[in-house]
Amino acid sequence: GYDYRFVAKGYDRRYTGSAAEQEILREEGLEKGTLTLRDADVQFWRAIYDEKINRADERFRRFLVAFAEMELMDRTLFVITSDHGTELFEHHRIDHGYSLYNELIRVPLFIRLPGQQSRGNIAERVSSIDLMPTILHLLDVPIDTTVKQKLRGQSLVPIMRGERYIQEIISETDYREYTYKRSIITPAGWKLIYTLESKQRELFDLNTDPHERDNQASVNTVRADELERRLFAHFVHIGHDLMARQWNIGLNPVYSSQAPRK
Fold first, then answer.
1. Helix (H, G, I), strand (E, B) or coil at 223
2. 49, burial (CB in 10 Å: exposed 0-12, middle 13-18, buried 19+)
3. How far is CA 68 from CA 31, 65, 79, 241, 259, in A?
4. Rounded distance between C-alpha atoms, residue 94 and residue 89, angstroms
5. Distance CA 202, CA 209 (A)
6. Mean pLDDT for each 10-residue chunk of the chain (262 residues)?
């Protein structure tokens, strides 16, 4: 049902934006490791994604209007976020789940308190696992000892009040068992992505290389070694020894077209 509102005039419609086309590109990227697309095609797929966002925004606007008409805005805590982003050829794939680059793991997070009038922006990186303790804190829900021992995140209420947030951000994916990746981002902006099945390391300075183009793992081995130790120590701390098993590539079907039944 696209109306192609953001597609460049004169695009030759090599692609239409269909789910079947997206599947072909997704699987080709997984099989070959990279896609070959014309610049016009890349811009087309980004325009299609922008239309999806624009349509979702309009639906959410209508929801908020109806919500306000019921006079519930000042009685409601709003937390708006996303489970992941989508890569649109930033690293020569179109998909989500396979990698841990920032286009996949950097997502919006908005928190609106009931009756809130002032606005503010928090620049520090935070983690999705911080949402549960934050919501419990904001709602003044008591947390018993057992739950506290299991929580891996921390409340963001102190940072909303102006305190500093210093925590390493951990991400992971075992996407369809095509790959097994773990990453760590330090408060200083260094990021290591470790691919378990190949032991490949990617090291980026997000301060100077926010698009993750310059892999420094082979030239800055001391920093890469240190982040690797911290990354593996984190998983040992939460009960997952990454060195204790083999990471074999397999097939974990997610879509109906994969490994069809006979």
1. helix
2. middle
3. 48, 5, 16, 49, 47
4. 6
5. 13
6. 95 96 93 94 98 96 96 94 95 94 96 86 92 95 90 92 91 95 97 98 98 98 98 95 93 74 54
